[in-house]
Predict the 3D structure of the following.
Amino acid sequence: MLTGTCHCGSVTWRFTADPTQATACNCTICAKAGTFWIYGTEGEDIDITGPTTAYKRADSGNLEFLHCPTCGNTIGWRAADPDNNRAALNLRLVDTPDTVMNLPIRHFEGLNTFTPLPDDGTTVKDLWF
Ligand SMILES: [Zn+2]
């Protein structure tokens, strides 16, 4: 299990599955936020606790990006459709970074082609700092 906390401590997340990879995406939101995503299902392997604000990009309302209203950290995203529990967490908030450094990075070309790129051996530690 992994837990994560925003900078001010108002929002926490819990991921009860074992992540096998983290996704780095180059879309206009993810590139600006610097997020690494781990994916799951809210209410199953993902729980988010604390107040969040939701942001939907103007050109696509499929996802709500969740932020801490106090410190502004990106917490994760959830599907805007209430019948869809698909969600993701920002691995950057993990409380135990040492435990995720060897996870493979999956590069997702979210800017133009919206497709995953072939694995290139990059791990979280290569991009963390
Ligand atoms: Zn916060």
